[in-house]
Amino acid sequence: MAVNTLDRLRMARYNAFQWRFELSLVKKIALAMGMACVTGLLAQVRIPLPWTPVPITGQTFAALLAGVLLGQWWGGISMAIYAGLGIAGLPWFIGWEGGISHLAGPTGGYIIGFILAALFIGHFTDKYIKARKFPKMLGLMLFASFVLIYVPGLIQLYLWLSMVKGDTANIYQVLTMGFFPFIAGDAIKAITAAAIAWAVTPKQTFNKEADRDIE
Predict the structure, then answer these.
(1) I need a surface site. Which of 34, 66, 145, 149 has the fewest CB within 10 A?
(2) Domain boundaries, position 30
(3) What residues contact 136, with CB distance under 8 A and at least 6 apart?
């Protein structure tokens, strides 16, 4: 019975990702739009911090999972849709706000980082079977979160402080406002996202993976 249950689980995971890979363009766009909506909802899950304009939010979690669930390009496209429609005025940025001013604000760089992170995770999820194992997926999640999201986020925060607020912030001050308070929370998000990715992704080929001959 246990073996049959595991076999059914493996088949369900394979069928889900094979289905996602073979979808028509219109359906892929619809899924990307759906993930953008999820990101907009998680943007409203926020905890303001008194010493920084950057709040704790759930967006990072959505960006990390977008690449896993939607794949090599469409995870990034979903985050680009989130950014693009938000810039156009759709009020689903933090605090139910929209507009280009939000992207030019202190948190705009992190939104660009969401696109990079989703593209990165999606590439490795789709192209390498070994990347779907928990240790390697966790490494990918941590790199995406703490490098691909934080680097553009911190650059934008520094520019905003210097050019808009007129503050002469040093690197330590920028890190205190945009990085240090979020390390523990984003590490937990990365671990959780890696665990979900390990649980839902097939461990056999569905997409002509680069390492399919050494499964």
Answers:
(1) 34
(2) 10-207
(3) 130
